[in-house]
Amino acid sequence: MGTLTVSFAIAAALSTIRALSVRIWRSTDGSWWRRGTPVTLVLWLVSIGSHFGIEVLAARLAGPTVDIQGLGNATLLLYLALSLGLQNMLVARRVAHQVGAGAARFPTEAQR
User: Fold this and answer.
1) In terms of Cα–Cα distance, which of 13, 14, 7 is closest to 54?
2) How far is it, in rounded angstroms, from Cα 85 to Cα 15?
3) Contact 27, 107 (CB under 8 A)
4) Residue 49 has pLDDT above 70, yes or no
5) Residue ranges per domain, the chain?
Protein backbone atom coordinates (compact mmCIF):
# COMPACT_ATOMS: atom_id res chain seq x y z
CA MET A 1 0.00 0.00 0.00
CA GLY A 2 2.92 2.34 0.67
CA THR A 3 4.04 1.92 -2.93
CA LEU A 4 0.71 3.18 -4.21
CA THR A 5 0.76 6.11 -1.81
CA VAL A 6 4.18 7.21 -3.04
CA SER A 7 3.17 6.74 -6.67
CA PHE A 8 -0.06 8.72 -6.25
CA ALA A 9 1.74 11.50 -4.35
CA ILE A 10 4.18 11.82 -7.25
CA ALA A 11 1.20 11.82 -9.66
CA ALA A 12 -0.37 14.70 -7.75
CA ALA A 13 2.86 16.71 -7.68
CA LEU A 14 3.57 16.21 -11.38
CA SER A 15 -0.08 16.95 -12.28
CA THR A 16 0.21 20.29 -10.51
CA ILE A 17 3.37 21.18 -12.42
CA ARG A 18 1.85 19.99 -15.73
CA ALA A 19 -1.23 22.15 -15.15
CA LEU A 20 1.05 25.18 -14.93
CA SER A 21 2.80 24.21 -18.16
CA VAL A 22 -0.42 24.18 -20.22
CA ARG A 23 -0.90 27.23 -22.45
CA ILE A 24 -4.31 28.91 -22.13
CA TRP A 25 -5.79 31.50 -24.47
CA ARG A 26 -9.06 33.04 -25.50
CA SER A 27 -10.24 32.77 -29.12
CA THR A 28 -11.82 35.63 -31.01
CA ASP A 29 -15.30 34.20 -30.37
CA GLY A 30 -14.67 34.35 -26.61
CA SER A 31 -14.18 30.63 -26.02
CA TRP A 32 -11.22 29.38 -24.01
CA TRP A 33 -8.61 27.02 -25.40
CA ARG A 34 -5.72 25.12 -23.90
CA ARG A 35 -2.75 23.29 -25.33
CA GLY A 36 0.05 21.35 -23.76
CA THR A 37 3.61 22.46 -24.36
CA PRO A 38 6.76 20.39 -24.91
CA VAL A 39 7.30 20.70 -21.14
CA THR A 40 3.86 19.14 -20.59
CA LEU A 41 4.85 16.17 -22.77
CA VAL A 42 8.14 15.65 -20.94
CA LEU A 43 6.34 15.80 -17.60
CA TRP A 44 3.86 13.17 -18.81
CA LEU A 45 6.70 10.86 -19.78
CA VAL A 46 8.39 11.41 -16.42
CA SER A 47 5.09 10.81 -14.64
CA ILE A 48 4.34 7.48 -16.30
CA GLY A 49 7.98 6.41 -16.04
CA SER A 50 8.00 7.17 -12.33
CA HIS A 51 4.88 5.05 -11.82
CA PHE A 52 6.56 2.00 -13.33
CA GLY A 53 9.93 2.86 -11.78
CA ILE A 54 8.40 2.79 -8.32
CA GLU A 55 7.03 -0.68 -9.09
CA VAL A 56 10.51 -1.92 -10.03
CA LEU A 57 12.04 -0.36 -6.93
CA ALA A 58 9.34 -1.83 -4.67
CA ALA A 59 9.81 -5.31 -6.17
CA ARG A 60 13.54 -5.15 -5.48
CA LEU A 61 13.07 -3.86 -1.94
CA ALA A 62 10.41 -6.48 -1.17
CA GLY A 63 12.76 -9.31 -2.03
CA PRO A 64 12.17 -12.59 -3.83
CA THR A 65 9.56 -13.91 -1.40
CA VAL A 66 7.02 -11.16 -2.15
CA ASP A 67 5.49 -11.09 -5.63
CA ILE A 68 4.29 -7.60 -6.57
CA GLN A 69 5.22 -7.80 -10.23
CA GLY A 70 2.47 -6.25 -12.35
CA LEU A 71 1.33 -3.80 -9.67
CA GLY A 72 2.17 -0.88 -11.99
CA ASN A 73 0.03 -2.33 -14.77
CA ALA A 74 -2.83 -3.11 -12.40
CA THR A 75 -2.94 0.42 -11.00
CA LEU A 76 -2.14 2.35 -14.20
CA LEU A 77 -5.76 3.35 -14.92
CA LEU A 78 -6.25 4.61 -11.38
CA TYR A 79 -2.95 6.49 -11.64
CA LEU A 80 -4.01 8.10 -14.95
CA ALA A 81 -7.46 8.97 -13.60
CA LEU A 82 -5.93 10.75 -10.61
CA SER A 83 -3.32 12.46 -12.75
CA LEU A 84 -5.67 13.61 -15.53
CA GLY A 85 -8.44 14.59 -13.12
CA LEU A 86 -6.19 16.77 -10.98
CA GLN A 87 -4.50 18.38 -13.98
CA ASN A 88 -7.88 19.16 -15.57
CA MET A 89 -9.24 20.60 -12.33
CA LEU A 90 -6.21 22.88 -11.91
CA VAL A 91 -6.30 24.11 -15.52
CA ALA A 92 -10.05 24.79 -15.19
CA ARG A 93 -9.34 26.71 -11.98
CA ARG A 94 -6.77 28.84 -13.83
CA VAL A 95 -9.37 29.70 -16.48
CA ALA A 96 -12.07 30.42 -13.89
CA HIS A 97 -9.70 32.72 -12.04
CA GLN A 98 -8.96 34.63 -15.25
CA VAL A 99 -12.62 34.88 -16.23
CA GLY A 100 -13.35 36.39 -12.83
CA ALA A 101 -10.43 38.81 -13.26
CA GLY A 102 -11.60 39.96 -16.66
CA ALA A 103 -9.20 37.67 -18.53
CA ALA A 104 -6.72 40.48 -18.97
CA ARG A 105 -3.68 38.24 -18.54
CA PHE A 106 -4.34 35.87 -21.44
CA PRO A 107 -4.03 36.96 -25.07
CA THR A 108 -6.78 36.34 -27.57
CA GLU A 109 -6.16 34.16 -30.58
CA ALA A 110 -5.71 37.25 -32.75
CA GLN A 111 -3.05 38.61 -30.38
CA ARG A 112 -1.01 35.39 -30.31
Assistant:
1) 7
2) 9
3) no
4) yes
5) 2-111
DSSP characters for 91-105?
HHHHHHHHHHTTTTT
d(CA 100, CA 102): 6
> What is the enclosing helix (H) or strand (E) of 62?
helix 38-62
Judged against a pLDDT cut of 60, whether residue 102 lies above it is answered with no
CA 39, chain centre distance (Å)? 12
The pLDDT of residue 18 is 96
pTM of the model: 0.75
> Can you tell me the mean pLDDT for 69-88?
84
102: amino acid identity, one letter: G
Nearest partner of 95 among 38, 44, 12, 31, judged by Cα? 31
Please determine, for residue 60, whether its predicted confidence score (pLDDT) is greater than 90.
Answer: no
Greatest Cα pair distance in the chain: 62
Distances (CA, A) of 36 to 2, 9, 41, 103: 31, 22, 7, 19
